[in-house]
Design brief:
With 80 residues, this protein is mainly α. It has one domain. The chain is 90% helix and 0% strand. The chain has 2 helices and no strands. Helix 1 runs antiparallel to helix 2. The chain is rod-shaped, with a radius of gyration of 20 Å.
């Protein structure tokens, strides 16, 4: 259970770091036109959405795994 929490924490930390880097990239992009900034911002938003969906899926899978382990322990305690 502790390992699952650490994995989720790592995914969250990486996502925050990625978003911070993308934000700085948008702010400091050298372009006379706004098109580069807009493209970087759009790509950052798309990436953030994708990572968010993956993190939610991973959290959901971890929750299911923990529930299955608890149920397995209950069954095994009745079998003994």
């Amino acid at each position: 259970m502790r390992k699952s929490f650490n994995t989720l924490k790592l995914i969250g930390t990486l996502t925050i770091g990625l978003l911070a880097g993308a934000t700085l990239g948008v702010l400091f992009a050298n372009s006379k036109e706004n098109s580069t900034r807009k493209e970087i911002a759009k790509n950052a938003k798309d990436l953030a959405k994708s990572l968010s969906k993956k993190a939610k899926r991973q959290a959901k899978n971890i929750s299911k795994e923990e529930w299955l382990n608890k149920e397995k322990e209950k069954i095994m305690s009745h079998v003994k």
